[in-house]
Amino acid sequence: MSVNVVVLENKAAVAKKAADMIEAQVKAKPASVLGFATGSTPEGCYAELAARCKAGKVSFKGVATFNLDEYLGLDGEHDQSYRYFMNDRLFNHIDIRPWNTNVLNGVAADPGFECLAFERKILACGGVDLWLLGIGNNGHIAFNEPGSAPDSRTRIVRLTESTIKANSDGRFFKNPLEVPHYALSAGIGTIREAREIVLLATGDGKADAVKAALKGPMSLDCPASLLQKHDNFTFICDKAAAAKIS
Ligand code: GLP
């Protein structure tokens, strides 16, 4: 089945559409297992979901979540950790039970075991119903950098210079020297097992990655392209991110 590509006017419309899809999923199955991503791109979607939950339109009381990745060496109190990000942007503002939110522990005594336990917990929860993703400028998904295997699982990964630079441009870390060089990341195989994938891309900085992901061959050079054959995959872009695919 081909990828369902949705091109919308702007970032706000992308956030709303993604929130609509998550709301529909949770309404259809209140005990949904959701996969979440960090980064600037999904922030608008999380704000939408928080507002809808506050307004009583959707409840996350029965939901369990798994997050894609975490920096190795950062604990959840660190303001650049992905645990902190998720609490700050979403979990603290919705009615989800905190113990049902799973973010890899960046300071686990045994990071390899932490990755294995994460995979096992996804299985124990019955697999992920819908995984929301962003995309890096170099086509990475989660922290699966170019070269990652299509069947890779949750593991310790090394970040590329381009990702370190992108994540220290002032939006998150202020200085590349502060960015950990390693992370724990769900693998491409882990992500591909989700029953539905929704990938968001906004802004002209993502136009080349979007083109490679959708129009290029399935290639290790662009990790997002390895999702092309997923049978329930929606790629939501704003016009700027879609500039090179039309
Ligand atoms: C990070 C995250 C990815 C995210 C990417 C793009 O590297 N690990 O999950 O998709 O950044 O982030 P942004 O949305 O800020 O461009």
Strand and helix layout:
Elements (H helix, E strand, L loop, with lengths): L3 E5 L2 H18 L4 E4 L6 H12 L9 E4 L1 E3 L10 H8 L11 E2 L8 H14 L5 E4 L21 E4 L2 H6 L15 E4 L2 H5 L3 E6 L5 H8 L18 E6 L8
Parallel strand pairs: 1-10, 2-3, 2-6, 3-5, 6-9, 9-10
Antiparallel strand pairs: 4-8, 7-8
Helix pairs in contact: 1-2
The structure holds 2-amino-2-deoxy-6-O-phosphono-alpha-D-glucopyranose.
What is the alpha-carbon Rg in Å?
17 Å
Q: Say how many strands there are.
A: 10
Number of domains: 1
Mean pLDDT across every amino acid position: 97
Uncertain ranges: none
How can the largest sheet be summarized?
Answer: 7 strands, parallel
Number of helices: 7
Which ligands appear in the coordinates? 2-amino-2-deoxy-6-O-phosphono-alpha-D-glucopyranose
State the order of secondary-structure elements, H for helix, E for strand.
EHEHEEHEHEEHEHEHE
What is the beta-strand fraction? Answer: 15-25%
Strand order of the largest sheet: 1-10-9-6-2-3-5
CATH topology grouping: Rossmann fold
Rough outline: globular
What's the CATH class, please? Alpha Beta
Structural class: alpha/beta
How far apart, in Å, are the first and last alpha carbons? Answer: 20 Å
Fraction of residues in helix: 25-40%
